[in-house]
Design a protein that fits this description.
658 residues; mainly alpha; Serine Threonine Protein Phosphatase 5, Tetratricopeptide repeat; 7 strands
């Protein structure tokens, strides 16, 4: 939170700029604000006086031995030990760190001789509320930097423990006030990666001993806690980043930025099968750190460090960027894929022993993401990729190219071509990676059957997928809805959502959408049976709630828009439904879609226009002009099955047969 001023023209000004323009007016504003604060918090004046004393004490600090002794041993001289002042210093250190400790120590020193010190301590001890004291101690940790304090603290830590100093550099580079404890718990273990033989291999840590050696790490962390730079609890490490900022200009910092990238590369699995139980949770948990750390890959010194000797550090960073590109919003996906592109160029230009498989995998990832943003066909790029298949690792990853081509075939309604692409894959070497990818190929067959309208075949495949991810579950739920088993969908979605550790994740959103679609299908079945559906407003509200989610693909966005339009349509909200269907049509055109679904959208709009009194002859002319489509499409749950049946019945009431 920051204070700003608004001038007579409505322009926002910082306090410094406002003081430069109207000093007298600013003093008046401060006085008014002060009175408001004092009415709510009676000790406001006393708090300001104590803070002033604290600031003066901290600004005048030159470095000495008295505070050092307390900082390292938590002991004071015999005269001070056990006194209220000693308790105040201990509280300041615990809450505000060494800056608050120094402020309290010198602002209350020599109270028996110094009147100002005596007054400050009395206000602090007797007048200020406990809440005001704690707030003041926290503010002290944010006081403007004192070069003498910075040099003193840095030298103190360096003499105490060089490992603690190194760890302080790393914590500074993480740039987070709260660090998940799992980050360092996992760094003591080997990482899991796919080997050239297509099997999971364990790789030892390349990190410095202070990070990978549990004993060294714990000793260093204890010293950082002693110095007030970090606090540890069972789940997290709390870092005083204001204090850690002292080390910002140290020459070691670029190296530790690279170490931070290495650390995340080591502890995060880059493929779901490498750690199926924790994969999503780990990536979601580490996203804030990844946002802080991966931008370091734009710095030449960091890239140079990672690329030394073999360039494996750069390849691991590319894999990390690819893995995290499946999480968060589109802006993040584009940022990390741009970083990966730059790293791959560096690998190529530097002549490192690069992995052609990794480059092809990344190219496929880029194309797949582009197709998720917009469904336009990009066949030329797909055709030009020739994936190497000479090893088990390469052959396993070649399935990604086939799946991309299948995705393209589905967009074209070329389902037999999709099945042909899937038949090209085989597990040549029989490795774990190949079998894992083979399971994805099998599941894709079920998806193709779904889009063909062959729901029983799709169900037989999708229901047998072992440990299905949220994408497969969403397809399975859609198939069950089309088969009339929408009441059974909640048996899948409810337990999944109850046990989901990240309710705002993309996977959770996907399962929620599948659950809402099932409720929609259940309601439409009521209408087909001639019964009312009074709960449509609740389903409509659930669709609208999902609209604000920031990670929607074009397909999910279309699904939500369709759900909103249908619920308003059946609810008799004629004008709102017409606007909603027009929004669906705009999105349909924007995404380059053609075919049967477009006709269903137009039928829906025509039916609403008839309700509003549009002449039937005009509707008939429009229906006659609509492009014919000889096949149904089943991309969106219900839009190719039950909804057209409802629209036909409604139009038949006007004597119109379609």
């Amino acid at each position: 939170m920051d204070l700003v001023c608004v001038d007579d023209n409505g322009e926002l000004l910082s306090m410094e700029d406002a003081l430069g323009k109207e000093v007298d007016q600013m003093i008046g504003l401060f006085s008014d604000a002060f009175e408001v604060c004092r009415q709510r918090q009676p000790d406001t004046l006393e708090t300001v006086l104590v803070e002033k004393a604290f600031r003066i004490a901290f600004a005048n600090f030159k470095g000495e031995m008295h505070v050092k002794r307390f900082l390292l041993t938590r002991q004071l001289d015999k005269r001070t030990h056990g006194t209220p002042r000693a308790q105040m210093m201990a509280s300041a250190m615990r809450i505000g760190g060494p800056q608050a400790l120094i402020a309290v120590f010198y602002a209350t020193q020599d109270t028996h001789r110094n009147l100002e010190s005596r007054k400050t301590f009395r206000l602090l001890d007797e007048v200020l509320t406990e809440e005001s004291r704690e707030h003041l101690f926290r503010r002290a940790s944010q006081f403007p930097a004192n070069p003498a304090f910075n040099k003193w603290f840095e030298g103190l830590l360096e003499k105490l423990d060089v490992n603690a100093l190194a760890l302080a550099f790393l914590l500074r580079c993480l740039r987070a006030s709260v660090v998940p404890g799992v980050l360092f718990k996992r760094c003591h273990e080997p990482s899991r990666r796919w080997g050239a033989d297509g099997e999971i291999c364990l790789e030892g840590s390349k990190l410095p001993p202070v990070i990978r050696d549990r004993s060294l790490f714990e000793n260093a962390m204890e010293n950082l806690e002693l110095m007030g730079l970090a606090k540890i609890d069972s789940e997290t490490i709390h870092v005083n980043q204001h204090l850690a900022g002292i080390f910002q200009d140290r020459p070691e910092i670029p190296t530790w930025k690279a170490r931070a990238v290495q650390l995340l590369s080591h502890i995060l699995p880059t493929h779901p099968v490498l750690e199926p139980e924790n994969y999503v949770t780990l990536h979601e948990t580490m996203l804030p750190l990844l946002r802080n750390i991966l931008p370091y890959l734009q710095e030449p010194q960091v890239v140079s460090f990672l690329g030394r000797v073999s360039g494996s550090g750069l390849q691991e960073a590319v894999e990390l960027c690819m893995a995290t590109s499946f999480f968060s919003d589109h802006k993040w996906k584009e940022e990390v894929m741009a970083l990966a592109t730059s790293l791959l160029q560096t690998i190529y230009q530097s002549g490192f022993q690069s992995s052609a498989v990794l480059m092809y995998r990344f190219q496929i990832r880029q194309l797949r993401y582009a197709m998720l943003r917009t469904p336009g066909v990009i066949d030329s790029e797909i055709v030009n990729i020739e994936f190497p298949r000479g090893t088990a690792n390469a052959n396993g990853w070649s399935a990604d190219l086939l799946l991309l081509r299948v995705h393209d075939c589905i967009k074209r309604n070329e389902f037999e071509a999709a099945h042909s692409q899937l038949s090209l894959y085989s597990s040549i070497f029989g490795s774990t990676l190949e079998r894992t990818q083979g399971a994805r190929i099998d599941a894709a067959r079920g998806v193709v059957h779904r889009y063909q309208g062959q729901f029983r075949d799709a169900y037989d495949i999708l229901s047998k997928v072992e440990s299905p991810n949220s994408v497969i579950l969403a397809h399975l739920c859609a198939v069950m809805c089309e088969m009339g088993e929408f009441d059974m969908v909640s048996a899948i979605t409810s337990p999944w959502l109850q046990h989901c550790s990240c309710p705002q994740s993309k996977a959770a959103m996907r399962i929620r959408l599948a659950s809402i679609n099932a409720e929609l299908m259940g309601g439409l079945q009521h209408i087909v049976s001639g019964d009312p559906w009074p709960s449509w407003p609740r389903v409509h509200a659930m669709y609208e709630d999902l609209q604000s989610y920031g990670q929607l693909s074009w397909f999910e966005r279309m699904t939500i828009l369709i759900g909103i339009a249908i619920t308003q349509h059946v609810g008799g909200q004629i004008r709102a439904a017409e606007l909603a269907w027009n929004e669906v049509r705009l999105a349909y055109v924007k995404f380059g879609l053609v075919g049967y679904i477009g006709r269903v959208i137009d039928w829906s709009i025509c039916e609403l226009e008839l309700r509003q009194g549009v002449q039937q002859i005009n509707i008939l002319e429009r229906l006659a002009d609509m492009q014919n489509s000889t096949w149904r499409e089943y991309f969106f749950t219900g839009l190719g099955t039950v909804w057209p049946a409802i629209i036909r019945r409604l139009l038949l009431n006007y004597g119109i047969s379609i």
